[in-house]
Amino acid sequence: MLINILAYQGMTMLDAIGPYEVLSRLPGARVQFVAAGRDAITSDTGFLTFLPACELDAAGQADVLLVPGGPPERVMPVAQDPAVQQWLRQQHEGSRYTASVCTGALILIAAGVITEGGVSSHWMAADTIADMGLAYTGERITRAGKVFTAAGVSAGIDMALALSAAIADRDTAQAIQAGIEYDPAPPFPYTGDDPAVRELAGTLLQDSLG
Amino acid sequence: MLINILAYQGMTMLDAIGPYEVLSRLPGARVQFVAAGRDAITSDTGFLTFLPACELDAAGQADVLLVPGGPPERVMPVAQDPAVQQWLRQQHEGSRYTASVCTGALILIAAGVITEGGVSSHWMAADTIADMGLAYTGERITRAGKVFTAAGVSAGIDMALALSAAIADRDTAQAIQAGIEYDPAPPFPYTGDDPAVRELAGTLLQDSLG
């Protein structure tokens, strides 16, 4: 089972690594980070540089296509790249499942892979999704047929567990959950609906970009 | 603020990327992946290869030292490497905080950085920790002075949020939590205390190693 993860300059690593960690434990899984060029990929912060496995044309047809997100200024050029768009449409046509995390949904929308209905994404992207003519659901995971979209960054873990149950079965997904000891216990309540918290979150994110 | 993350062949990526994603958003944070050699680092599954920022000697004194885990057969050679042990002891001496995720605790114990008391780690490592003369707490996060240890893999996110509150303040940590939209909602209950689930988890993990 081939899992192709789109890799691009300025991507947010946890968007990809959360699902990678879950999906790579599925029996028979092979995960590839696939990029539009041969260059090493540097994350949004500038602190991690990795080597994609192959370029778009060499990737082969994915069983699972996954698109991680990143800051808008790094996502938009990728979303508007015709070669990436064409590759995503082709991969999606033959995929068993197609998934996005965070602002990865914007890339799938721009490519015409998602054309209607509701999508999950980062709360920062809610207006952009509305501008693109789709509905931001505000849900942690939104499933529409074979397409799974997840909320921001860490939501890819939840999404990938749901996707694993769909690909394999619930017992397998729960064993993977045990393997990554995903029994989350944030040390304080989530306050991300508070406008003041959102403003500080946006500032911290912006200031951390490499 | 310099955050040095130990990188080594066969490490589990989410152990490092969870905390990286949180800590890199702290004001003034600079994160370095530091390795014992110049080679690119390949993760436990074999599916991700990245370039460490520098070698041990070139890393500079960390404000925060972080040690991720991995499968026992990949962790143990690192834990027993005298150069790594010495580097960890030196870094820990000058650090403001020292942290591990998952079986990274075994590396800190082997280096003599943690010498007594309770530690969090992956449930799979509970017996090994007892064999090393320490107490596995079974907690998601254990704090002993300036040392934070986390449970398996995904627990590094929870730990890093607690650590962020200690480094900065709770408002900052909660804003980072909002930034990575960490409002976890696993699609099914955690069953990792069930021996049958643990057995399947161990098999899936073993079969996924590259």
Protein model, in words:
The structure is a homodimer of 210-residue chains. Chain A has helices at 13-23, 72-79, 82-94, 104-110, 126-131, 155-167, 170-179, 195-208, and strands at 2-7, 30-35, 41-42, 49-51, 54-55, 64-67, 97-101, 118-119, 135-136, 141-144, 147-150. A 7-stranded mixed β-sheet of chain A has the order 5-2-1-6-7-11-10, with helices on both faces. Chain A has 8 helices and 11 strands. Chain A has one domain: Rossmann fold (3-Layer(aba) Sandwich). The N and C termini of chain A lie far apart (34 Å). In chain A, helix 2 (72-79) packs parallel to helix 4 and helix 6 (155-167) packs antiparallel against helix 7 (170-179). Helix content of chain A is 39%, strand content 19%. Chain A is of the alpha/beta class and 210 residues long. In chain A, 56% of the residues are buried. The interface between A and B is large, with 72 and 72 residues.
